[in-house]
Amino acid sequence: MDSLKTILYFSIFRYPLKLEEIHSYNNHTDIDETFNELQYLINEKIVTKIDDFYVYGTDLDSVTKRLKGNLQAKKALIKAKERAKFISKFPYVQSVGVSGSLSKGYFDNDSDIDFFVITKPEKLWICRTLLMLYKKIFLLNSRKYFCINYFVSSCSLEIEEQNRFTATELKTLIPLQGKDVFKQFYNENKWIYDYFSKFTPEINSVEETQKPFFSKTIEFIFDNKIGNKVDNAFKIITLKKWQSKFSYMNQTDFKIALKSTKNISKHHPSNFQKKVIFSLNEKLEEVRQKFNIEIIKEYV
Fold it and tell me: What is the pLDDT of residues 69-102, one digit of tens each?
């Protein structure tokens, strides 16, 4: 019941899917297998088909919501590409991609443009600090079109939390800058095929980053042991700030939602990953009780 699990997952976001989209998330080789599975779900009144969309339950308004969000996403993606190119010019940035709701083709008034940034080794925290300073000073700390909340170093590309949430984020990630490093990134995260066997990264149109003279100069100045110490100092300062600001979080949640290592920086204080997995498991339990269908639950 891969198709049902996919529909349930996206129903958390009130985002109904089409046949081809559902097929891309399951492990059926033939799309007719997916179609037959969906027909069974319709006949059992577990899923409803509205035009080309498959909806769990009676949330019929979710189709209209998706269509409106798809239209706004086309405009937002143009802006995201411009911002990604700008971000790629900062010192130590090697690759930039778009994640979050926009990467799935949805954007509304409450959405942010989320960027996934890959940096040079040993300089992640210098890179992050420079980008954050730009956001605070020139964008007045607005994250609407400049949400930079996930950084990894190119020497540590494998994502540690390997679950359906992170697999979905990797599958839908839109690489925009830094083609060669993104090739390495996908090569280091082949575990995604355990979830989505038909996944094929789309990186042919990804541009290579071009650094201006100013960025090259900063990289040259800090490309030494002093630069490594500065990078570590920024990490310590940021971590202490987060520990104080989010002291209410337990240690386990903090380490996942606000991971701060030499090669990783995450700023997800809402721990969205955990909430989504929890919501999915609630829906799986609901299906078990209502329709006597047992589907394996997911874990963070």
Answer: 999 999 999 999 999 999 999 999 999 999 999 9
Cα end-to-end span (Å), the chain? 20
Range of the domain at 10: 2-59+277-291
Residue with structure tokens 């809402």? 270
Say what percent of the chain tops pLDDT 70. Answer: 100
Written as one string, the DSSP assignment of 190-257 is: GGGGGT-TT-----TTPBPP---HHHHHHHHHTSSHHHHHHHHHHHHHHHHHHHHHTTTS-HHHHHHH
Same domain, 37 and 182: no
Cβ atoms of 98 and 85 within 8 Å: the answer is no
Hey, is 18 helix, strand or coil? strand
Strands 174-177 and 53-56: unpaired
Looking from the CA of 16 toward its CB, the CA atoms found within 13 Å total: 25
Q: What angle do CA 182, 118, 148 make, to 5 degrees?
A: 125
Phi, psi of 49 (to 5 degrees): -100, 120
The CA-atom distances, in angstroms, between 265 and each of 93, 104, 187 are 14, 23, 21
Note whether 47 and 178 are same-domain residues: no
What is the CB neighbour count within 10 angstroms for residue 237? Answer: 12
**C-beta of residue 101 within 8 angstroms of C-beta of residue 227:** no
> Is residue 102 located within the same domain as residue 207?
yes
Nearest Cα to Cα of residue 260 among 91, 166, 124 = 124
Sign of the CA dihedral with 30 first, then 35, 41, and 44 last: negative
pTM: predicted TM-score of the whole model, two decimal places: 0.95
Cβ contact 71:167 at 8 Å: no
Nearest to 167 by CA among 141, 200, 189: 189
The partner residues of 54 in beta bridges, in order of sequence, read 17, 49
